Amino acid sequence: MVLNKIQLDNEKETLLITLYAKALDSRSKNSILKDKKAAELVDMIDYNFEKLHSFGNETMVVRAKQLDSWLHTFLENHQDATVLNLGCGLDTRISRVHPPSTVKWFDVDYPEVIEVRKHFYSNCEGYQMIASSVTELNWLEKIPKDKPAIIIAEGLLEYLTKDEVKILLERLTKHFPSGQIAFDVMNSFAINAGKEHLKKTTGAEHKWAVDDIHEVDKLNAKLKRIASFSIFRSKYIHKLPFKLRFLYTIMYVVPNFRNMIRLLLYKF
């Protein structure tokens, strides 16, 4: 099956950037994610993926692997948890993680994105897609609030304003009794450096820059940071080819590059 050309724009189209990165990784000799499902999806989509080669595909794969790792750890200790995957796009995380049957998993994204996603996934026992922007007010009511939750926001919060992030965090921590939330942030240098290329390629725009992690800590009193580090310090960087590892080691020495992308894990 090959889909017709996908008609998405702005931040919705960026889902193809992360999907393509994971597909390329699955085809490499030393794959980090081993995400064959992502490669299958790319093969079924009529889209000019070649234009997405210059978006730091390797760092996206490392980011996904780190988030998967945190998710695995949480589910080992909470086998009846709720998983909330925000801005899911065509993410294949549920296929990689294989959660226990006792887990309730919810993938959330814009209605236009979920319509595309329905070509590849179907709602079933323990898994549900929710068609809504995360900034809308009523989507969270569809999700049970009696279990601990782990919330993943991969490559999402950068597209919201600081105020929108604050409101979202408040709603999430109020809805669930306890849990964790894992996400990534970008600094001003990274956002400004990639602004024109991102806009030209997809029309999207990053809105929330984080230069001081303590600003994130202050957004919600219920959140307690339990992990934070530059993506270049994730242990999964060491799985990349030597040339890339060497490049990222050099980049880490320079503060602006060091904090381009940081991975954060909070509990509440």
Characterization of this structure:
- With 268 residues, the chain is an alpha/beta fold.
- It has helices at 15-26, 36-44, 57-77, 93-97, 111-117, 162-175, 188-202, 213-217, 242-253, 255-258; strands spanning 82-86, 104-109, 127-131, 149-153, 179-186, 224-230, 261-267.
- A seven-stranded mixed beta sheet has the order 3-2-1-4-5-7-6.
- α1 packs across α2 and α1 crosses α3.
Q: What characteristics describe this protein?
A:
alpha/beta, 268 residues, globular, 7 strands, 10 helices
Percent helix range: 25-40%
Q: How large a portion of the residues is in β-strands, by DSSP E?
A: 15-25%
Cα-atom Rg, whole angstroms? 18 Å
Order of helices and strands: HHHEHEHEEHEHHEHHE
| Overall geometry | globular
Largest sheet: 7 strands, mixed
